[in-house]
Amino acid sequence: MKYVSTRGRAPELEFEDALLTGLARDGGLYVPAVWPHWSKDEIASLAGLSYEETAFRVMRPYIGASITDADLRAMIEGAYSGFRHEAVVPLRQMAANDWLLELFHGPTLAFKDVAMQILARLFDHVLAAKGRRITVVGATSGDTGSAAIEAFRGRDTTDIFILHPKGRVSEVQRRQMTTVLDANVHNIAVEGSFDDCQALVKAMFNDHAFRDEVSLAGVNSINWGRVMAQIVYFFTSAVALGAPHRPVSFSVPTGNFGDIFAGYAAAKMGLPVDRLIIATNVNDILARTLETGRYEVGKVVPTISPSMDIQVSSNFERLLFDAYGNDGETVTRAMQSLSQSGAFEVEKAAMDAIRECFGAVRVDETETAETIRRTLAETEELVDPHSAVGLAAAARLRGDASVPMVTLATAHPAKFPDAVKKATGIHPDLPPAMADLFQREERLAALPNDLGSVEAFIRERARSVTV
Ligand SMILES: *Cc1c(COP(=O)(O)O)cnc(C)c1O
């Protein structure tokens, strides 16, 4: 499988190099040059398979021949053996034809573990084969950082630096990152928002001298490997609910558009997806774009679903590229307009194509809290605020009752205990293995929102620096 950049000006890469490169050198994101496509029979044959076997079959066509079947299977086994549920990502019935896909049974209690656990193993495998060491840098609004740190901790092939917006992640989220004391783990609290952190990471990737000096690699959802690993659970859940013989809809709590883009990829591969619902909090750039055709960055507002407090949804660029028929020139112009004036218009034909499969709903803070409360009253399930945004959006765009509606539960309620307690009066407990989180020692560095300071910090500590 070859990978091309959404801006059309970076070299085509094989899987291994797209994985290690993250952001393309022309500023674009890597996507498969062509989508693998499965027949109805091939999809039907997934019925009854384990999560691991489905993961193998879904990811295999995206991965180069240099990774053997046996190695890939072993990495998948390792990635999911630590999940607290046998099914890895169980489906829970909420109403007659409404389901919750629980993606939070991994080590850091959010869906990002599903992709990060396999991503770190793929990195390690490819780097060890090449005899290379890299520096992973990522920005987090809370959950990516802890999932990445947990997946990469102690690995000799990588040093990991995670930037989070100081004071804007929950205490559980912060401690899950800062209490990992392995020598290859470095936490940076940036004086700014998540978008500032993401902008710093992008700037480091665009500083080619620095990028080469420290062998920079990215694990944000701009990394194709993340999206690839998330395609799997759209297949497992849809097949469990009757696909390919009937279509299924998904409501996806959305920030950077990585998770929902994986659902789009599944549809591209032939999975019958009726609707993909973009569920956003009041940081509603995507809901506004669907409504108006204009993608316009607003101001980030802190909410009780902080992992979605984002105004630049990086992976939307992948959808644009597809909607424009792989026209990198048009995507480049849109992105130039975005960086110059903070906005761009999506052409009508592309916008119509996007509206064909996607709907979008903005859920405010009151409705989120009310959904947490009502879900507990009606189903006895405690849900976290991100999952609640998904449930509220699903209810609003429910449509045909005969189509199963799957809402992605992206975090465990104990990851956001304050919001859950405020809505329900119940304090959600951490799983036993994490019960002493608040007693553990923390390590982090606070830095200004300044590229030079952050680069200097990394240069001093990265073992991959060539001198
Ligand atoms: C990251 C995250 C999201 C948003 O996912 P994207 O792939 O960035 O759209 C939603 N919910 C939780 C709990 C998350 O950690």
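^ pyridoxal-5'-phosphate complex. The longest helix spans residues 112-130. The chain is about 45% helix and 15% strand.
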